[in-house]
Amino acid sequence: MKIPSYVIKVARILHEHGYQAWVVGGCIRDLLIGRPAYDYDIATDAHPENVMAIMNKVIPTGIKHGTVTVLMNRKTVEVTTFRKDGKYSDSRHPDSVSYASTIQEDLSRRDFSINGIAFNPITKEFIDPFGGQRDIETRIIRTIGNPVERFSEDGLRPYRACRFAAQLGFSIDHETFSAISKCLDHALKVSVERIRDELLKIIQSARPSTGIDLLRESGLLKLFLPELLEGYKVTQNKYHRYDIYHHNLYSCDAAVPDYRIRLAALFHDIGKYYAKREIEERKGGKKSVFYNHEIIGAAVTRRILQRLKFSNNDIKFITHLIKNHMFHYTSQWTDGAVRRFMRKVGLESLDALFELRKADRLGNGLKSGESNSVNRLKERIEKIIEEENAITVKDLAVNGYDIMNEFGLEPGPIIGKILNTLLEEILDDPSKNTKETLLAIARDILPDDMKENLELSLNKIRNS
Asked: Rounded CA gap, 244 and 222, in Å?
């Protein structure tokens, strides 16, 4: 086991003072699997006050539950006294915590066998009372003890089982998985923030569809994301191999591992369930259409993300991508049309939108590779950016103060309207982006009453 030197140093100090020191938890699991480990925890028979007495730098981060954080070589190690938990009345936290005398007792309170392994870096001894190493070899997620009891104690554990399966590429033991549906009332008590965090970890795994489909099959998905289930077994049209639900999942799989783009991919067609209509075809028969599903989908996604307490910035970015993912570029687009598209999407969001379109295409089930039309659009955008043509009001050769000073106007909505009208002119003909030309155009588009007031003011100046 390649335990970092700073962790070994903490363990050695404990050992030299007569205490046990076992590295436990996810770090041991990850090292055995061959994944990088980042956070290291030590379980010990030393009480918190003992640890604080023998270590130079200690922070009492969770001293009520027997946990302190030791600072060693500018790194942190959580050191927790062997403990056993009391009853879990709230389906989330033990009512009481008491110290245990052995590492075996401490391991028995943990969730899954793969997390119930301990390693002593001083004696090089393994403790694995629940077959965690065997389950790692066979790639199985299994609870320690009775799964119904484990899931009833802590309603977050069923979500973690699905998350570990997605992250590690493991299967969930049949008895363990069957127990989840029997404990949904406990899963309902978990805070949306903790559920959101588990969802994000699934989203950023190699194949998010694995974890999300386990959430569906177990009954967990309907507890916090029923909108995604609406598309299950809802067929699309001849251009799609999968139903709406699976298309969303496979698009999420295909997206780059940026959680915001993957969430946009997961929800990009969620509006299709609500927008689906059957219309008559010219040659007879009916076909499914989904007009404005991107607008509906953006609204549904906003509601979901707000419920899961995502940040306003994340909500704005993700819904913006969904709302704009249905663009249809053709070679007939003028340069002005390309500039308007750039302005509508925003330069800062273009790359993300193209990644979403690529994921949408790959999740279709009938297509592969890059879209030729999107590649051509990218080339035109790059050319326009290289030419430094105006795209936003900020790029105009005049600003609001120029307009107010030139025409004697007060601040107000009319200034923004004039600037946006000037921008429309520039999008079609960038050569007009000079101060003199724009002020001339602005004079022409001033409302008549403002033109009269301006002329009166100019006459007064001439006659003074």
From this structure: 16
Phi, psi of 346 (to 5 degrees): 95, 130
Burial label for 358, CB within 10 Å (0-12, 13-18, 19+), is buried
Q: What is the reported pTM?
A: 0.86
Domain that holds residue 302: 238-387
Please report whether residue 83 resides in a domain. Answer: yes
Does one domain contain both 17 and 74? Answer: yes
**How many domains does the chain divide into?**
4
Strand partners, 119: 23, 126
Report which residue type is found at 464: S
Compute CA distances 454 → 293, 326, 403, 437, 441, whole Å.
48, 45, 12, 18, 15
CATH number at residue 143: 1.10.110.30
Query: Do residue 32 and residue 171 come from a single domain?
Result: no
Pairing of strands 118-120, 125-127: antiparallel
**Band of residue 331 on the pLDDT scale cut at 50, 70, 90:** very high
Strand intervals (E) in 74-216: 75-81, 83-85, 97-99, 118-120, 125-127, 140-141, 171-172
Domain assignment present for 229 = no
Same domain, 121 and 150: no
* Tokens 């090292």 sit on residue: 31
- Residues 279 and 333 placed together within one structural domain of the fold: yes
How does pLDDT run across 197-235, given as a tens digit for each residue?
Answer: 999 999 999 999 999 999 999 999 999 999 999 999 999
CA distance 364 to 368: 9
At 85 the pLDDT is 81
Q: Which pair of tokens denotes residue 134?
A: 């065997």
- C-alpha to C-alpha distance for 116 and 133, rounded to whole angstroms: 9
Comparing C-alpha atoms, which of 60, 58, 50, 49 is closest to residue 14? 50
* pLDDT bracket for residue 284 (50, 70, 90): confident
Residue 231 lies in a domain: no
**CA–CA separation, 439 and 397 (whole Å):** 10
Residues 105 and 194 in one domain: no
Terminal CA-CA length for the chain = 91
> 397 and 379, same structural domain?
no
Nearest to 376 by CA among 396, 354, 395: 354
| CA torsion angle 435 441 444 447 (round to 10) | -80
Q: What is the 3-state secondary structure (H, E, C) of 250-301?
A: HHHHHCCCCHHHHHHHHHCCCCHHHHCEEEECCCCCEEEECCCHHHHHHHHH
Write down the pLDDT at residue 181: 98
